[in-house]
Amino acid sequence: MLKILLVSFIFLFTSILIPQETLLDNFEDLTGWEIIKSDGVEISISNIEGLNGKSIRIDYNFIYGTGYCGIQKKFDITFPDNFTFNYRIKADSPVNDWEFKILDNSRENVWWYNQRRKNFSNEWSKETVKKRNINFAWGPTANRELKSSNYIEFTIASATGGKGTIYIDDFYFNQLTGKSFDELNPAIISSTDSQNLQYLLNGGSNRIWFPEKDWWLTVDLGMNSEIGGLIIEWGKEGLKNDFSILISGNGVDFSEVYSVSGNIKSSSFIRLPGTDTRFIKIKGNLKDSLSIKSINLQPYFFSEDINAFFVNVSKNSKRGYYPRYFNEEKSYWTIFGVHSDYKESLINEDGMIEVDKYAFSIEPFIFENNN
Which is higher by pLDDT, 155 or 287? Predict the structure, then answer.
């Protein structure tokens, strides 16, 4: 019988999230939805088969390449201390800005979650808008704290322009209640019941665990919680290691969210942005003399955006392995390019070149004796 070991985690500013769902609209009809648009933009809405019953279909066309359009409906909501909005979305659309907006009764004060240059999926997916994602956008109000809603708006704004179709279904509001993480008694379950593995999760021990073939470890957080990822410290660098991360809400039905083949690094930084789960399973196949020193779960802000994630990776890596800005250090830049060309590049004092706006960068690195 598997032995459950109680452990203590310290998660700053992280809470256990218990949703109380309210259906705002299942889009069985289009009652209440109004079209908003700028000049030079065409938009139409219709009611078609969706993920569950009917959905709303939005067809748009940026005739002159710029502008915005969307749909708006009255929703009177008084916001609790913590909340999320959830909806399902799929699209046949070029890359453009996708905006979720909250407006007051005057419709002059606007809060938003703006996903700039969104790559839309043509498969149904769940979109979650958390309270912390929403910021004040504009308006005359002196009080920018978001307390209530009178209107909600879905807007597409031109980034590349063009025309496309967006589908939305199952629009929910979730009130979240929470407990601090240190009030819980999480547990770890291992593929062997012969060892006490509490030291793996504390991160302060010099002890090492040597797993058996086809090993796994499962951490039970006690209740659904939001995490940002984890850092696994392996016992020795250079040993080939295949492993995967799975999550589950009930401890029975697990889905894979991350996998690595042939890992040879001593530290694995695993980005799981905005992951809500109760159970986290790490499993692998024993190839070499594999060992694990620690498993450190990370709060949501560990990987809230890709830059935040690499700042954390850089700070836990040898200096020089990552560009200086990932150590939150500034460098000086200058513009260069062909005279009168509308495209220009940037180069900094470390020799990094940003080839174009919104494009990739190239930086030279010099290694000596693998350092």
Answer: 155
Contacts of 336 (CB under 8 A, 6+ apart): 344, 345, 346, 347
Question: In Å, what is the CA distance from 151 to each residue of 102, 108, 267?
Answer: 6, 11, 47
Helices (H), the chain: 198-202, 306-315
pTM above 0.70, yes or no: no
Distance linking the first and last C-alpha atoms of the chain: 46
Token pair of 36 as six digits: 């908003």
Residues with Cβ within 8 Å of 219's Cβ and at least 6 positions away in sequence, in order, are: 186, 187, 188, 201, 279, 280, 281, 295, 297
Whole-angstrom Cα distance, residue 249 to residue 279? 6
Distance CA 7, CA 221 (A): 10
Pick left, alpha or beta for residue 162 (phi over 0 → left; psi -120 to 50 → alpha; otherwise beta).
left
**Tens digits of per-residue pLDDT, 150-209?**
999 999 999 999 999 999 999 999 987 765 555 656 778 888 766 678 788 766 678 888
What angle (nearest 5°) sits at the alpha carbon of residue 315, between those of residues 351 and 276?
120
Sign of CA dihedral 216, 219, 225, 228: negative
- Measured in whole angstroms, the distance separating CA 140 from the mean position of its chain's CA atoms is 31
How many beta carbons lie within 10 A of that of residue 173, not counting itself?
Answer: 22
Q: What is the pLDDT of residue 64?
A: 93
pLDDT tens, position by position, 302-315 = 888 888 899 989 98
CA distance 204 to 293: 9
